[in-house]
Amino acid sequence: MVKIMVKIEIKEEYDIVTARVSAKEEAKKLGFGIVDQTRIATAVSELARNIVDYAGEGVIEINIVRKEGVEGSSSSGSGSEHHGEARERLGLEIIAADNGPGIEDVEKALEDGYSTGGGLGIGLGGVRRLMDEFEIQSKVGEGTKVRVVKWKRI
Amino acid sequence: MKSGSVLAAGSEHAEETKRKRMAERGERPASERIPILQIEDFLLTSIQVPLHDRLALQFQRDLLQTIERTRAKGLLIDITAIDVVDSFITRILVEIAKMASLMGVKTVIVGLRPEISITLVEFGVEFNGIETALNLEKGLEMLRAWKKGDYGENYGENRD
Fold first, then answer.
1. In a domain, A78, yes or no
2. Among B86, B114, B123, whose Cβ lies nearest the Cβ of A129?
3. Distance (Å) from the C-alpha of residue A86 to the closest C-alpha of chain B?
4. For every one of its 160 residues, what pLDDT tens digit does chain B have, with 9 covering 90 and above?
């Protein structure tokens, strides 16, 4: 099982560009189309910006993940259903982690229009909409970890 | 920052420090300015580099100063070369349009690529108060019509 991993330290605004460019490159290498590349890069840009704005520093990891393809057509593909043979699906996993102040009300942070910073307040909710999987763990005073995955369409 | 300064001047300490730091990090010292051109009564600018925060804010200042200096009536911002429009960039563009509007200037963003449009809609970003056009030509057409005063008749109203 090949697992390529890119790790980008996020310390200042320039690192946001580095992170999203890497994410887009990895997505392209993996064979994602231009729209998915853009979704992924936008999500990474947003996550990296959150790190800079709220935590000061943190890390973005980009991993290749795999799963058997049949049941988990978790993406937005509503119409077409695949029956039968299990095919391996490839995906790109992004983990954004920091040891910042943490988020007090995670549910609220996912609502559109909510922002404690100067942003538009669509950040996390928007990231969730752009990706197929979204998990967030946050503890006040300890930090935040967001994990998102985009699966390649079969 | 003082007003009335010549565009693309400015090599202050901050610039120097930044350059030094970039060199340490092995990055190329990009000329950190986005050119602003004038065509008829309008300003034309094309964002060709990945915008980071400081460059974006510099761009904002440059644009407003150029508007003041040239008394431009309209502003065309071409984003064909931008491959990611996140909430920060959106905010910068919306702010530019609002500020320009306060100075009597209409802003039209042109060149949103299909993948950007799709992502923006899913992401939930709204270009409030910003007019968009498919390309430079359409954008220019829009501004000319607006300047002539028949903007509302020829193009759908989209004021905030």
1. no
2. B123
3. 30
4. 333 333 433 444 555 566 556 655 655 445 578 999 999 999 999 998 877 778 888 999 999 999 999 999 999 999 999 888 888 888 889 999 999 999 999 999 999 999 999 999 999 877 877 899 999 999 999 999 999 886 554 454 454 4
CATH of the domain at A109: 3.30.565.10
Is A140 within a domain?
yes
Asked if B12 is an interface residue toward chain A (Cβ–Cβ < 8 A), one would say no
Integer Cα distance of B68 and B47 in angstroms: 20
Set out the domains of chain B in order of their start, with CATH numbers: 34-152 (3.30.750.24)
Q: Which residues of chain B make contact with A120, given a CB cutoff of 8 A? A: 87, 90-91, 125
Residues of A in contact with B52 (CB under 8 A): 13-14, 16-17
Please state, in angstroms and rounded to a whole number, the distance separating the CA atoms of residues B60 and B52. 12
Structural domain including A34 reads 5-69+88-151
Instruction: Quote the minimal CA–CA distance from A129 to chain B in Å.
Output: 6
Cα torsion through A39, B119, A33, A84, rounded to 10: 80
Report the SS3 class of residue A70: coil
Residue A20 lies in a domain: yes
